[in-house]
Amino acid sequence: MIKKQDTVSYNEKNSFEHLLNDFLQDKTSCPESSLCTFSHKGCTYIVPEHERNSLITEFSDLRFSWGKQSFVPGQGEAARFFVGSEAGEPAGFSLYMEETICSDDDASCPTAFYIYREGEPEPLAECQEKQITGYGSQNDFSALKSPLTPGGYFLLADGLTDDGENAVFQPLGNYLYLPFRVMESGETLKYPVVKAVEVSRPQEELADGPYTSGIVRMSVCFSAPLPVHREFSALCFTQDWRLLSQDVRLFTGHRSEKYSLHFRFRSELIWMPGRYTVILTHNREPFAAVVFEYDGMPEAAVSWQVLTQTDAEYLWGKYLATDKDWKCIQNFVGMGKLRLRLADLARQSSYNDCCEALCLPELRENIYAAVLSDEPFYAKRLAYCLPLLLHYCTTGRKQVDCAEWLENNSPEDWLEERSGLAVTLYNIQVLCTDRGRDLLERLEEAVEDTFRFWALTLCGTEQEVEQVLSCSPLLARAIRPEYRFGLEQPSVAEVVHSFQQALEETEYRLEAAAQDELARQAVEYYEVLGLWQKDDYTRFVLKGLLGRVKQRVRRNYVPGSKPERSGLIRVKAEDVVIGEWLQSQGAVQDFASESKMLRRVFEESKKELDAMVGLSDLKEALHTTFCRMLFNEQRRRMGLPVEDEGIHHVVFTGNPGTGKTTVARLLGKIYHALGLLSKGEVITTERRELVGEYIGETENKMNALFQRARGQVLFIDEAYSLCTDSSDRRDFGHHIIESLLPMLTKPNPDMLVVLAGYPEEIERMLQSNPGLKSRFPYHFHFADYGADELMQIARNTLEREAYVLVPEAEVLLRQAVEEALEHKDRHFANARWIKTFLVSGVLPAMARRVMQAGSAATVELYRNITRADVEEAMRTQVKVRASGTASPRRIGFRA
């Protein structure tokens, strides 16, 4: 323990020897009748008079702040403040201690704190306070005597004691002191230009496998020598935007000839395969982002970019990575995309920071939100953190169990006291029961009351939230889309790190080889592990993993031996057997069946596509698309970065009868298997069912269509008929297109829209509305069938119904096909034409011939199609075309 000494040195000891000794040693001097002085690094400093006695104060959890900047000594935070445009303004220092303990519990202990600029004798600011046992202590300093400028500073403390191992102060004679630096903010400096980057793992780190904790190295080369008095930091994030590691380099010399920086990212968590982002900052100002792909090899593929203030990486590096409020969601899983959404909302919500700086009142808004997750643990915690993350301006937080609320004799109590509160509701499904209707109505009344400031968050599964919003259109309108937060299935990296965090709660630790084995097995069984909740990881660690460790130790124990403790708490690779645990829990079969199901649907759809006649170019394009979809889904489930996710709406162009509806059905099956569509069937409708006599009616019909098409493929044939070139606004087809756009912009709408029709009209429609065009990234063209392909379609159609074309009939049928192709126009129906020719022409002619013949009934008679049957069909079809009789073409929506 370092104690303030009672002995003093007087200034009358001014012999050369004493002066030299004071210079060589940091020494204090404090006569009772004059100012105290002390020497430090060759300079004598003056300590103003203040109350002193023999009492001393112990403290815990100290935070040192200047304005909005702060650091906690002893916790690895750099002792630095950065001045920019605020330099010269009277910003204040403050020192907060979580708890103080006076050496005399019944008395108050005097303390004094001073801020010095190195080399200047008098303090810039001071604070004298009396500390009381058992209380937190906020110590605000006087205004600065002169503006802060870049350089070295220190905090001097008198009346404190700082205990041993985790001491944050250093002794300075009779005092304690804490050095820190003030540096120029990177906002006002020219940032360096990155020329080259290399990322690697040391070879020795890979000895027990590539997927282990440890070190990743990054070397950054710049185009010019690095300036002095600068801090360079690198923050390494996982693809889920979780801060994995950080490193700092500080240049404080007089001159620098360095062109490069070498960072070391040390992580206790396993380096999983995937994408990592490193944000480089220059005096706390983000200026570049480095992205590297780690695949277990010593060298990683690297790219980098310059950052602007509008980039998400800039926001994370500047404000959120080390923000204490955002640290509360650091270990949440399933929040990769959600963290970026919340960061963007936080940026929009920072308006109140400007109001505070300008001494204006806060802008208070009643915020209504919903958190959707199958994992109640993280859902409730996220809901609890939202007011801090998004600057709600509320003064308190309250969680309400709706099931208990329902049983409460006075359910309106908390509603009456809701002013200023951020309220989270869970077990919300009871609001839709008969008994819960009254509570839901009370809740709606509270939401409608805009005169009382409060915030509300519904917390539940997606099904529960959707159910409540369906029961309450008012709540559905109040909870805007940007405030609906869905936690996704965790990535494979989050699964592995969840295992490690559960193990950290015990005294056991994974060996490097065990870490690699855990990572590999997590990838193998991810489709089951990704559905686990927090308790499942804890149960596996305590009963599965540690159970095997104890069995191994007991099996290898030699009676009378004294094994070392460290050997008893190591988890080895042989102890990690996730498959056996899942087998014992009955989960492996479900995992295997789900994987096989996905592969089976893909293979079946591929076979069905291959069975379609012709369309070779289209098949190749669709095979590539199908493979890409499955490939991206498997990468996503493994936690690897995916280029594009979500629904990709499609455009099919081509003449009628070329297989567009069939391919749309195959897309629905695959999208359903991938979890992008909840049902995957193809639905159809007609223009007359959608276009009303007035605008409101059209919108209502479109809303009804969207409800019916939820989870389905909405196939729109000849969609351009809804958006004519006419400027007549009485044609409400325009409103149908306008109603489509909001649904198309949703990232996961649970609906696939297919626009189909003639190429020219489709292209003209898309060009007329750029917003519509951008929502359809996939375009597939269905070419007309040739004679060989139409003949193959005819044979396939007849074979399915056990009909046989005799050779003479087949020759004549081909002649009919060639004549039809010779005279076809753009409305030629291709496969639909040949099927109609057979079903409406050839087979009726065959039936008349057989029934009029009076011959003995044989299989050949009822199966074989003769030349006469084809001739009769050709005459019938010519008569139909000559008379002008044809089925009217339907416009609008059809399959």
Task: Explain the overall architecture.
This protein has 895 residues and is of the alpha/beta class. It folds into 6 domains: 16-184, Immunoglobulin-like (Sandwich); 188-329, Immunoglobulin-like, CATH 2.60.40; 336-486, P-loop containing nucleotide triphosphate hydrolases (Rossmann fold); 492-586; 593-782, Rossmann fold, CATH 3.40.50.300; 787-883, Helicase, Ruva Protein, domain 3 (Orthogonal Bundle), CATH 1.10.8. It has 28 helices and 35 strands. The strands form 9 sheets. Strands 6, 8, 9, 11, 12 and 13 form a 6-stranded mixed sheet that branches. A 5-stranded antiparallel sheet has the order 17-16-19-20-21, with helices on one face. A hairpin with a 2-residue loop joins strand 19 (274-282) and strand 20. Helix 2 (312-320) packs across helix 3 (336-349), helix 11 (492-504) crosses helix 12 and helix 24 packs across helix 25. The longest helix is centred in the last third of the chain and has 24 residues, at 588-611. The radius of gyration is 37 Å and the shape is elongated. The chain starts with 15 loop residues before the first helix and ends in a 12-residue tail after the last helix. The relative contact order is 0.05.
